[in-house]
Specification:
Elements: E1 10-16, E2 28-35, H1 41-49, E3 57-60, E4 66-67, E5 73-80, E6 89-91, E7 96-100, H2 105-115, E8 117-118, H3 130-136, E9 139-140, E10 143-144, E11 149-155, E12 161-164, H4 166-169, H5 177-180, H6 189-195, E13 200-206, E14 208-209, H7 212-229, E15 236-239, H8 253-258, E16 266-267, E17 270-272, E18 279-282, H9 288-306, E19 315-316
Helix pairs in contact: 2-7
The structure holds flavin-adenine dinucleotide.
């Protein structure tokens, strides 16, 4: 990807994980390395092999889908965190683009609309990165990441890179082959992750050439809808549960929860949002243990009232 300056990874020691999750929950972590571009990913592996950062290595984007543990984590959190600036993407005349893993999805959506490339609008309200979306198969409405994705570049165990195609990725509703082997593992995690090709470095996406004004209008209508239905001004992880396939036709997880009368229900500092029942918000000092207790209460109530098993969409990390 065309980045003007090759910035070295930034290392910080003994940080709070809550700083790196959009719900602001999580205990201490030994070290955090932030990469402004996946071009410097090799430097992180070098730092690890020289013993400058502790293992295991765990890979994240903006932490907008991760519940970190209250007890914290050993090892190093490796964050792909490209800013919202213009670099991190290289566009081609046919509407395809190469994007860095750390590029923010809203920035990518805005850029596509400005250039008159349709299909990216749904990403405008998803506050994650390219890497997180590639792993989660992020989506909204009838659109999802896999509709755009032509290929991914992933790290290999030998310090090089490999290309994965959609057929390798087994994309489904908010799931992918990468999720099964992602985020954090045993003490040799950095090796294991790389051997299993789960570190996303970049992606090749494709949209359709279109009128920029139409793309902008669609993007704005996505954002308006979100602002009117979601608690965007409060810390959350977005949807807590996947929408179930069973239950009354057309009922989302949020509607099942709402009709159990659970909006506003809280455990400590974590509450079922009064605005959107499938969002849990941190009302102040929330803990992972409280989030998980609330999750169990909600899942049990939905099972009792509707006979539907809700599955978490958020990634729950253990200490
Ligand atoms: C207000 C709000 C609204 C949301 N709305 C939506 C929505 O409409 N649709 C939707 O799908 N999601 C939504 N989400 C959830 C979240 O934004 C998405 O899942 C997003 O794709 C996660 O991206 P991230 O960079 O934050 O990933 P993280 O949360 O940092 O990570 C998610 C997973 O991906 C892995 N990962 C991240 N980057 C890499 C990488 N480079 N290589 C390997 N593994 C990696 C992590 O280990 C973890 O397993 C919402 C969240 C919030 C807070």
């Amino acid at each position: 990807m065309a980045t003007a300056i090759r910035l070295r990874p930034r290392l910080r020691c003994r940080e709070r994980l809550s700083r790196f999750s959009s719900i602001r929950i999580g205990g201490a972590v030994e070290a955090v390395v932030s990469l402004s571009s996946s071009e410097v990913f090799g430097d992180v592996l070098d730092m690890y092999h020289r013993g400058e950062i502790p293992g295991p290595l765990a890979f994240v984007g903006r932490g907008s889908n991760i519940l970190f543990p209250d007890a914290g984590l050993g090892g190093t959190l490796v964050r792909f965190e490209h800013g919202d600036g213009g670099s991190g993407s290289r566009w081609h005349p046919d509407g395809s683009v190469d994007v860095d893993a750390g590029l923010s999805l809203p920035a990518l959506a805005r850029d596509a609309a400005r250039r008159g490339v349709a299909g990216f609008e749904f990403l405008s309200g998803i506050p994650g990165t390219v890497g997180g979306a590639a792993v989660m198969n992020a989506g909204a409405g009838s659109r999802q990441w896999s509709d755009l994705c032509e290929s991914l570049v992933v790290a290999t165990g030998t310090g090089g890179s490999d290309i994965l195609l959609p057929q390798d990725l087994r994309y489904g509703y908010r799931t992918s082959a990468l999720l099964e082997i992602s985020p954090k593992g045993d003490p040799s995690a950095s090796q294991r992750h790389n051997q299993e090709k789960s570190v996303v470095l970049s992606a090749r996406l494709r949209g359709a050439l279109a009128d920029p004004a139409e793309c902008q209008a669609k993007l704005l209508s996505h954002l308006d809808y979100r602002r009117s239905t979601q608690p965007l001004d409060e810390p959350s992880l977005g949807s807590v549960f996947r929408n179930p396939s069973g239950g009354p036709p057309g009922y989302s997880a949020g509607r099942l929860i709402e009709e159990c009368g659970l909006k506003g229900r809280s455990v400590g500092g974590v509450m079922v949002s009064p605005r959107h029942a499938n969002f849990f918000v941190n009302t102040g000092g929330g803990k992972a243990s409280e989030f998980l207790e609330l999750l169990a209460i909600v899942a049990e109530a939905v099972l009792k009232q509707w006979g539907v098993i809700l599955e978490p969409e958020v990634r729950v990390w253990n200490a």
